[in-house]
Design brief:
about 25% helix, binds uric acid, two-stranded antiparallel sheet, oxidoreductase, Urate Oxidase, Uricase, urate oxidase activity, 8-stranded antiparallel β-sheet, EC 1.7.3.3, single chain
């Protein structure tokens, strides 16, 4: 038996980059959290403390900030591809670079009914995400873009049932034909090729997801997720795979009987934990899988 170094990667996690565009009176803001992770020939650093092949994580961070100015942040997907490509292309012993990005959305403050030029409030909705993996060089170059969001909290007050489930001796759950269905959705979708606009693709995919959640009569969260994924793949040719992680945010009918009060699906206890956690992938069956590390989250944030 001998002890060897296994898979490894390193980078700078969670550089908080805020880019203001201030060339005109009406400013624009992009507020992101960037993580870079490099894979390559770094055995020397681990085995002997030889740093000669280590591009410091500090340099990776500096590049993230410098590129925010020099290349701009038109979309997190574009920015991530530029940064990831740069890291692989400039350092010869790097095999692949992964750039994970979260974007925090800001909404203009309204003053006298008009949008203010340079003041925003943070939007409390979902956090947009992107994970870009760049591998290889020249004709072996492969770039995988996975866009998505996390923490999109959705609730429908009817149109959801859960019946006919398998029953074992410990099953006490009552079937229901009318329940609240709620989740805090994480969704990630993989592109092959680039859409004409990353910005409008994001808005359009999110719209398909939320409208499918609303309109599908749900027999289970599993079925709703599959239908949401199918709708996205049917609508967007450049998306080949979508992955979901959906906590089932249980809303239990509160027992008002002790007070002689009828509860006709009107008062619920929003339970915090435990929660069901449903995860599913919906994909085209004729598309080559992404490189393994493309789905392999670095920070656990996306
Ligand atoms: O949509 C659901 N899927 C389940 O697998 C499940 N299990 C459970 O207890 N409630 C639900 N709801």
């Amino acid at each position: 038996m001998s002890i060897v170094l296994g898979p490894n990667r390193y980078g700078k996690a969670e550089s908080r980059v805020v880019r203001i565009y201030r060339d005109e009176a009406r400013h624009e803001i992009r507020d992101i959290n960037v993580s870079t992770a490099l894979r390559g020939d770094f055995a020397g650093a681990h085995l002997f403390g030889d740093q000669s092949k280590i591009l410091p994580t500090d340099s990776q961070k500096q590049t993230a900030y410098a590129f925010a100015k020099q290349k701009g942040i038109v979309s997190i997907e574009d920015y991530g591809m530029t940064l990831g490509t740069h890291l692989v292309d400039t350092v010869e012993h790097i095999d692949s670079a992964r750039v994970e990005i979260e974007e925090f959305a800001w909404q203009r403050v309204l003053v006298d009914g008009s949008e203010h030029d340079h003041t925003w409030i943070r939007k409390g909705q979902e956090t947009r995400t992107a994970a870009i993996t760049v591998t290889g060089r020249g004709e072996h170059r492969e770039t995988t873009v996975i866009a998505g969001f996390k923490d999109l909290v959705m609730l429908k007050s009817t149109g959801s049932e859960f019946t006919g489930f398998y029953q074992d001796p410990y099953t006490v759950l009552e079937p229901t034909n009318d329940r609240i269905m709620a989740t805090s959705l994480v969704a990630q979708w993989r592109f092959v090729g680039a859409p004409s606009s990353w910005e409008s693709a994001y808005t359009a995919v999110k719209q398909v997801l939320v409208s499918t959640f609303a309109t599908v009569h749900s027999l289970a969260l599993q079925q709703t997720l599959y239908e949401m994924g199918r709708a996205v793949l049917e609508e967007f040719d450049s998306i080949v795979e979508i992955r979901f992680s959906a906590p089932n945010k249980h809303h239990f009918l509160y027992n008002l009987a002790p007070f002689g009060i009828e509860n006709n699906n009107e008062v619920f206890n929003a339970d915090d934990r435990p929660y069901g956690l449903i995860q599913a992938t919906v994909l085209r069956d004729d598309v080559a899988p992404a490189p393994a590390e493309a789905w392999d989250s670095y920070t656990g944030l996306v």
